């Protein structure tokens, strides 16, 4: 199962970006949606991704099964990410499981929202790609803007201090809403621990 947890981000981006562009173009030119409707549903999909990411990270990736088999599945899903935080091949799912999950997500969105899913789904996938980009940046770079530092610190603390808090990777919004955000004013940054989380150039 471990091989299914590794992939090159270049492959995933190359696979999804043309699909996102084509579906949005098709929605506007062939389904009668206005530019405003396309943009609104697309942005809504990105926003929904942040909520999905939070709940998946908190309740799926950090579940604590009782059985040995369940513990192994939990490790493959996410535990290895904590054990090997410098492994760049674990940022995004490989193509096959990624497409299967994306297909299930689209089917659910279509059942709920009909043709609006054609614009919502690309936003959801864009959120996933932004998540991958930010996750890479948090482990590779210093925050480019001062206002982004809480996002960086929240994730670093999740790795080296307490993995029962700081579940947001692409946003701290839901950590703040659900009370799992670190009190960054009270936390002293451990520069050595952070260094251990950073990718080597």
How does this structure look, described?
This protein has eight helices and no strands. With 201 residues, the chain is mainly α. The chain has one domain (2-197). Helix 2 (35-60) crosses helix 5. The longest helix has 26 residues, at 35-60.
Largest sheet report = none
- The helix/strand order is HHHHHHHH
- Which segments are poorly predicted (pLDDT under 50) over 5 or more consecutive residues? none
- Separation of termini? 28 Å
- CA-atom Rg in angstroms: 18 Å
Shape estimate: globular
Could you estimate the helical fraction of the residues in percent?
55-70%
How much strand? under 5%
Number of strands: 0
Mean pLDDT: 85
SS class: mainly alpha
Count structural domains. Answer: 1
Counting H and I runs of at least 4 residues, what is the number of helices? 8
Explain the layout of strands and helices.
Blueprint: H1 9-30, H2 35-60, H3 68-83, H4 95-113, H5 117-140, H6 149-160, H7 173-177, H8 191-197
Helix pairs in contact: 1-5, 2-5, 4-5
Q: What is the compact description of this entry?
A:
This protein has 201 residues and is mainly alpha-helical. The protein contains 8 helices and no strands. Helix content is 65%, strand content 0%.
What are the defining features of this structure?
single chain, 201 residues, mainly alpha
